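Title: Comparing notes on inverse folding

I've been comparing how different people in this forum approach sequence design from structure. To keep things fair, I'm posting one structure and asking everyone to reply with a full sequence. Here's the target:
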């Protein structure tokens, strides 16, 4: 019910009649901020219970263009938080852009300044750069753009804040009432951050468990001390005491972050990373991480940035690469040894996961696409003309 309300608001102005079937294209248009809560005036059949008190938060793309520049991928537009607040039988709504450094810079310059996942921007003054230097300047520009702090994918209540995530190690801390962005936090600054690790991606769709701890996963490249060859690693990230209601300082949050043992590619000389978009909490003790057939190739960034291509060009759907699943033990902070192989696949979101005590198996219900890469399909030019069929599947382990 609440998500339907959000869908209607997202596709219309607050003062318009809410429609869930018309003007869906407006979901891909910029929205103005509504910084103060406004009461939703609409016909209600029955009554909203007076005991219903609290807020529902969502985030997603909010501003799609700056000046004459338009973002090219669904994960790139400037992030906006929306809030529905229920109090005394009334419903209030507000929304505000997340004030990331990327968004503030775009506002100041009235153009898209920094490169995002699927949107390439040229460095400044390219006309004045010698042809033999343009490739080097493009790669320097890409390094200045990443990791992005445009936290457009998800929000969670953590340590008294509404914390927004994207697929990078940078998060934003936003006030629960005003929605104002007060801090930008890099989890790589946590005291427990492993030495020699360069994080590449962090899963934006985490989970909070019954203990009040928040969990997610990350991918990176680790160079062991005195070693010359880096290794691709996968690891869990835990934010302890996440359900704490009072605001913690950024320093306190960093002190509550811990990292698991590393999981390596089966061939440690394989420098390709497997992409995963989300995972599932299958029981209070175990998390299941699906590794898709989409590969991230860090070495490809050298060619893509030289040619002026965004980071999405590093991602490749390998139709010859099996998918697989790994199980993570939260208590020991270690990976179980067994690997479960699947057919070639791409998954965005699981439906549910649980442990079947009768069969002694983990069960994962998921939405998946066979033989295709949905990330590439979220380029706006592709979304207009095609979209793959998503199928429901069940995996047992």
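Reply #1:
Here's my take.
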């Amino acid at each position: 019910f609440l998500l339907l309300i959000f869908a209607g608001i997202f596709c219309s102005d607050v003062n318009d009649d809410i429609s869930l079937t018309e003007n869906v294209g407006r979901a891909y248009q910029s929205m103005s901020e509504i910084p103060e809560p406004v009461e939703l005036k609409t016909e209600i059949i029955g009554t909203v219970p007076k005991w219903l008190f609290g807020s529902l938060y969502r985030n997603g793309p909010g501003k799609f263009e700056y000046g004459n520049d338009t973002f090219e991928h669904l994960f790139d537009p400037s992030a906006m938080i929306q809030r529905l607040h229920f109090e005394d039988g009334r419903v209030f709504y507000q929304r505000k852009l997340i004030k990331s450094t990327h968004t503030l810079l775009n506002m100041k310059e009235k153009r898209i300044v920094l490169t995002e996942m699927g949107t390439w921007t040229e460095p400044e003054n390219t006309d004045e750069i010698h042809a033999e230097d343009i490739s080097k300047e493009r790669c320097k520009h890409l390094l200045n753009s990443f990791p992005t702090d445009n936290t457009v994918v998800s929000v969670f209540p953590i340590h008294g804040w509404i914390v927004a995530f994207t697929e990078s190690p940078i998060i934003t801390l936003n006030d629960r009432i005003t929605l104002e962005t007060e801090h930008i936090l890099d989890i790589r600054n946590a005291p427990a951050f492993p030495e020699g690790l360069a994080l590449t991606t962090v899963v934006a769709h985490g989970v909070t468990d019954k203990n009040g701890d928040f969990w997610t996963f990350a991918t990176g490249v680790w160079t062991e001390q005195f070693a010359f060859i880096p290794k691709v690693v996968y690891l869990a990230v835990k934010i302890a005491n996440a359900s704490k209601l009072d605001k913690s300082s950024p320093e306190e949050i960093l002190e509550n972050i811990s990292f698991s043992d590393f999981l390596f590619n089966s061939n440690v000389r394989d420098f390709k990373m497997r992409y995963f978009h989300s995972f599932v909490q299958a029981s209070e003790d175990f998390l299941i991480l699906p590794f898709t057939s989409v590969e991230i190739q860090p070495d490809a960034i050298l060619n893509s940035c030289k040619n002026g291509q965004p980071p999405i060009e590093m991602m490749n759907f390998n139709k010859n690469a099996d998918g697989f699943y790994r199980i993570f033990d939260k208590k020991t902070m270690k990976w179980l040894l067994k690997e479960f192989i699947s057919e070639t696949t791409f998954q965005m979101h699981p439906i549910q996961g649980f442990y079947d005590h009768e069969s002694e198996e983990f069960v994962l219900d998921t939405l998946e696409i066979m033989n295709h890469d949905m990330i590439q399909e979220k380029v706006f030019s592709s979304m207009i003309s095609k979209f793959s069929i998503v199928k429901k599947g069940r995996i047992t382990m």
